[in-house]
Amino acid sequence: MNKYAILLILGFITCIIVSCDDDPVVNPPMEEILQDTTLYNFSYGALPSPNLPDDNILTEQGVELGRMLFYEKLLSKDATQSCASCHRQEHGFSDTTRFSIGVEGLPGKRQAMSVFNMAWNSNQFFWDGRAHLLRDQAILPIQDELEMDESLDNVISKLSDTKMYQDQFTRVYGDSDITVDRMALAMEQFMLSIVSYDSKYDQWKSGTTELTESEERGRLLFETEYNPFFPDFSGADCQHCHGGANFENDLYMNNGLDDDSGFVDIGREAVTSDMQDRAKFKVPTLRNIELTAPYMHDGRFQTLEEVIDHYNEGIHPSSTVDEAILATSATGLFLTENDKVDLVNFLKTLTDQNFLNDTRYTNPF
Description:
Elements: H1 3-20, H2 60-70, H3 83-86, H4 134-143, H5 152-160, H6 163-173, H7 180-193, H8 200-205, H9 213-223, E1 252-253, H10 269-272, E2 281-282, H11 304-313, H12 323-326, H13 337-348, H14 353-356
Antiparallel strand pairs: 1-2
């Protein structure tokens, strides 16, 4: 059989095979993106009921969109930084640098605050409270020239060109319209979902573990009031400012870092225009405090030992310093070196390892 006959036979067989294939090739149907209003499973252990907004109910898809935006570098001018760049989970969603460096290589003005347990916050946001709601706080760093230095119009344009975000906004809001308000609400949802409630201290409270002798002595010092008349029975008096389940008091206070001549940052006064608020700053939570150095609004202290030394013997009287703190300035807190060690050991029991490794808060990309 010559080669022409072979080619003819092969061609005939091919025709038969093709003709027998009655099913045309069909591309798989496009996935239809639908709104999903499944509620987010918000767990918070033994913490009191949270302060969640009625007009921004947490949903699974809303929290996920917020998480995407929290880690999204397109929110910055040059696509190099995200919210998570200065609020890292392994450091309690804070920054280990004294002043975070923005996209232009410039330092910020204050130390980055921790972002967790925001649902138990009731007195505005940032060190000076200039953002009324968490959704307001979410978008201000984007526009700050010392931070992400981007316009909201550019952010919306960049996100709108991305099918991933078109789809996710549809899952949350029912359509792909990407707006600043929707973005802010989603970021609020994610930040509200970040909760720390399972530290060694919490486990001790629930009766599932024991504190060491040093940790227990530190706890008693933490909770015992300052007593200038009976120094042997005087404590560190921490609970007045860092009490309750979240170890803070939702107040703005001057804790004696400087005297009047040393005020560089007027703090809350810049928001309220009230001179009585000069050099007052938000009292932060002490949960996960072991991981959130440096400390104070200006990051001046690198260690917990330095912080304790400040309260023990470094209070500076001023016109707006809190009276309870001022009362200790004459004598100090009478803390011994052993007391300081015990107090630090107790503060470390507020570290929540499960929170630090919770995959619900990690980078989704």
